[in-house]
């Protein structure tokens, strides 16, 4: 996505070109660090299985696993790395544990970028964000996400692609991708059951993924929840101040208004971009707790 959505008068073209440079070194280092954390927490889960320490290991591993959403997001933009093919390969690897096929997700997400906070055309607003405490609680459980993801995979796998944001030439790819994903899941489960690794699969994937999905729901709600509708990317998107751990796990996406204003800028350049755009941002929260508290307090308001 190379379109520029942000106001051009806030950053000159030469600086923007510099900020938009992809880097295999930066991307591969970030990816390796994230995967190393995932391996370390997975080893901790296996080492603590059968003890009370597992109650600590599972959420730690789940956080590293669930936030594979961040490299998936960066690679569908194809800004994580210089190579298009390498970006696409990493997107598949990161999308598999999350039930998010990258071809479908790219169309969904790019449409969200084009029509951010447009209730009629932003697919993130279909269904609308929760407006009641009951709807908020249901959303934050993550269960609607899993239900929609499984239904979407099955529906696409049988050849039904009805989303208006999927262009005709890519529908076959969406169908093929869903079938491959379902085939990988079925093969993995069968192999795990046949080799005695089914319990390990449940501990390393299913339980931590379900357990920590609520954290991802809260994180994603903060990106646009409570922000005004309209086309101004510096107003309809929230930037959230956060610590180094969160910025690492989220690949600097707490700088979200900056990302929406200039989506061609890769993750590693967003802090520098924030220095330029920070004074012009309309919605900035001092942490994800503060952001979600504001959103919760605003439930039911117009």
Fraction in helix: 55-70%
Low-confidence stretches: none
**How does the major sheet shape up?**
2 strands, parallel
Strand order of the largest sheet: 1-2
Terminal Cα span: 32 Å
SS field, number of helical segments: 14
Radius of gyration over alpha carbons?
19 Å
Shape assignment: globular
Number of strands: 2
pLDDT average, as an integer?
A: 95
Q: Tell me the count of domains.
A: 1
| H/E element sequence | HHHHHHHHHHEHHHEH
Share of β-strand residues: under 5%
Helix/strand class: mainly alpha
Short description:
The protein is mainly α and 302 residues long.
Secondary-structure map:
Layout: H1 13-19, H2 24-48, H3 54-66, H4 69-76, H5 84-95, H6 102-114, H7 133-140, H8 143-157, H9 171-195, H10 198-224, E1 239-240, H11 244-249, H12 256-261, H13 270-277, E2 284-285, H14 288-297
Parallel strand pairs: 1-2
Structure description:
The chain is mostly helical and 302 residues long. The chain has one domain. The chain has 14 helices and 2 strands. The protein has helices at residues 13-19, 24-48, 54-66, 69-76, 84-95, 102-114, 133-140, 143-157, 171-195, 198-224, 244-249, 256-261, 270-277, 288-297, and strands at 239-240, 284-285. Helix 3 (54-66) packs across helix 10 and helix 4 (69-76) runs antiparallel to helix 5. The longest helix has 27 residues, at 198-224.
